[in-house]
Amino acid sequence: MMKLKLRKIAYQLHVWLGLMSGLIIVILASTGCILAFEDELKSLIHPRRYFVEQTGTKKLPLAELSLRAAKALPDSVTIKRVQISSDPSRTYIFRTLKMNNDAATFWGTYIYYYRVYVDPYSGEVREVEDAKKDFFEIVLNLHRRLLLGEKTGKAITGYSTLIFMMILLSGLVIWYPRKMSKAMLKGMFFIKTSANWKRITYDVHNVLGFYAVIPLLLICYSALIWSFKDVDHWVENTLNGGIAKEKKAESKVPEGAFTRQKDILNLVGNRMLKDLHGRKSALISFPRTEEGTYYTELTTDNRYYRNINYNSDQYSGKVLQYRSYKDQKGSGSALRERNYDLHTGSILGTPGRLIYFLAAIIATSLPVTGFIMYLNKKKKKPKKKSKS
Fold this sequence. Notes:
Blueprint: H1 2-35, H2 38-45, H3 47-50, H4 62-71, E1 81-85, E2 92-99, H5 106-109, E3 110-118, E4 125-130, H6 135-145, H7 149-175, H8 182-189, H9 197-227, H10 229-240, H11 261-276, E5 281-285, E6 293-299, E7 308-313, E8 319-324, H12 331-337, H13 339-344, H14 349-379
Antiparallel strand pairs: 1-2, 1-5, 2-3, 3-4, 5-6, 6-7, 7-8
C-alpha cells in the first residue's frame, strides 16, 4: 500500500513538473549538445582564426604580441588574458571583456567582448572577433541564462535544473515495475519496435530515460553547484571538514615608479612556454589591480581538474603560489575542482564526452515524448456505464 502511494506521488510529480519545465529542459539539453564539441567545431569553421599560415623557428615575446593585440582594439580597452596552445600551428588568442551583471538580457550584459587572434611568429593580427555576436557565445548564454541576464536567467535555469533532477528521480520510481516478471524485465531495458507508435513512444521515454539517468543526474548536480552559491559552499566546506582555505596570492607593490612591465610579462610568458612543453594549452590572466598577479593555468588534457596553476608577482615575476591537483587539501575542494569535468563528461576523457552528448540528446527528447504521452492519455475517454 505504501509503495503504491509513493508511486502515485512520484507519477504526479513527474507529470506536472515535466509540464512546467519541459520547454526550458529542451533548450538547456539541446544547447548542451551543440556545446559538447564547441572547440573542435570552431577550429573547423574558422581556420584563419585558429591556425597560422606558416610556422617559424621562434615566437615573438609575449609583451610584443600583447601590444599588437591591444592596438587592434578600440581605445581604452585593455587585454585581460591570453590563451596559448602547445600546437605550434595555432594562433595566440587574446581576450578582453566588460560585463554588466544587472542587465536584463544577454546583449546588455556584455558592454564589450573581443577576442584577438595573433600569429605568434609574425605578430600579424589574423582577426578581431566581436565575441558578443559569436554563435557559440550566444548558445552558451542561452544554455546558462536563457539570454535573460545574470540575475533572472540564472535563477530560472537554476531552479529548472533542480526540477529536472526531481523529474529524473521520480522517473526512476515510476520506471521500476510494481511486479517483476520476465516480460516486465524486458520492457524495462528494451524498446519494442514491433509495437504501435504509442507503445514505442512510451518505450523511448521509459527505456532511454533510464539509460541516461546517471549522466543526467551528474550534469544536474554540477549545474546546481554553479547556480546556488550556498549549496556550493556547503558541499565544499562539509566535505573539507573544516580545513582552512589557502589565502589569495597578492603582488607586493613597489614604493617607487614601476617601468619594467614588459620585461615581467616576457618573463612570465617564457616561464609558461617552458612549462607548456608536453601539455595541451596555457592561459595567462593579467592583473586587474595593484595587488593582482599574473595567473597562469596549464592544461594537460581535456580533464580540467588536472590543471596546474600558479600566481606570479606582477612587479618581480616571482612565483607566489603553485598548485597542482595532486596537492589539493580536502575532498570538498577536490570535488569542486572536478565540477566542470563532471558537467561535461570530460572527467572520463573523450568517451565520457560522447556519453554525455548522447545523454543530452535523450534529455532533449524526454519532454517531447512525455508531452505526447500526456496528450494521448488526455484523449482517452472514460467508458460509458451500461444501463441496467
